[in-house]
Structure formats: structure tokens, C-alpha cells
Write a structure and sequence with these properties.
Layout (H helix, E strand, L loop, with lengths): L6 H18 L2 H27 L19 E4 L5 E5 L14 H11 L11 H12 L10 H9 L9 H17 L2 H11 L1 E2 L2 E2 L1 H4 L2
Antiparallel strand pairs: 1-2, 3-4
Helix pairs in contact: 2-6, 5-6, 5-7
Length: about 210
Amino acid sequence: MMARATARDTRTGSQGLRSRFARFWHPREYLLAIGFLGALGVGGFWGTWQNLCAGDACPSIARISTFEHEQKSKILAADGEQIAEFGFETRTPIRITDLPAHVHQSVVAMEDKRFYQHGGFDPIGFTRAAIGVITLNYAGGGSTITQQLARNLFAEIGFEQRYTRKIKELQVALDLERSYTKEQILEAYLTEIYMGGVYGFQAASL
């Protein structure tokens, strides 16, 4: 008659399995495996990046000579008084010098603490956000201010949660950082961001 396995036998078997597993898998092997998988991921990401951006799939910032923002059209009465406006969005271009220092400093502190240190992509912020998602301790996105601006300037980048969208966003962000100053990028971001049903800080304050 077959003997019935006890809880002790089960624990002993599990411990033996873990012991045999640990015998072949040391911390160094774990790191090598993680590194190998990471290299595969980076290689695939880089290949997709090259395929997308070697052609016309990635938007080119050459299409903009300066940041231009859509504004509503205004209808004026004979005496010059505005009586109506129409259009999809209200955006009033602003200058950093026109705002109290604490306004743009607060935006940077909340949205992208390392804005003045990175070149469009912040690997530290991205890693922190990824770990937050994995551990369910989510404390914000990994996209920089420049990345957020990129997807707002070019509608074809879109907002879908796909890695091809992220590649386009990264490429445009890097191009923006090479072509514009931090002040210009922050001014454009403050003009473009969505707040309370309107676009831009100036419109949101009305």
C-alpha cells in the first residue's frame, strides 16, 4: 500500500528542491541571466528604433521653426470689443519672465525634478517609475517634461500605451533638447499643457 505523504514530507521535498536549485543558481548566475534578458530587450528596442526613425515614421522637428500654438479666433465689434471666439483650443503663449519664479519651479518639481540635468530622457526617473509600477507603489510617470511636450506637439505620436509610441516620443524629445534651450522648452510646455478644460497656464488662470 502506498504511504500517504505528510506535511513534513512535503516541506522536506520543497526544501530539497530549493537546495538543488540554489546549488546551480548563485547570485552571479541570477545577475548574468537578468543581464542577458536585459540585453535582448535593449537590442530589440534599438532595432525597432532604427527601423522606425530611419524613415519617416518619427516626426521631424524641422517642421517647426519656432513653437507655434493654436489659438481661438476672435470676433470683434465695430468698437474693437471682443464679442465671441471660436476654435478648438485656447492657448496663450507665455514667457518664463512673465511668471513668478515659484510657478515654473513648482511645475518642474512636480513633473520632472531632473529637468535641468537630463537631455530629454531621464533614465533615473524612468527606472523609478518602472519599479513603482512593479511594486504597486506608483508615484508618477517616467516621462520628462520634454517627452510630454513632444507628444503634445505632434498628434501622430499619439497617447496609446505602445512601445512604438514611446520610441517616437523619445526621438522627438532628444531632437527638441538639441535644438532648443531649456527655457524655450519649458515655455512651450507651460503653453501646451492641459489644465481644467483649457490649454496652457495663461488660459487656465482666466
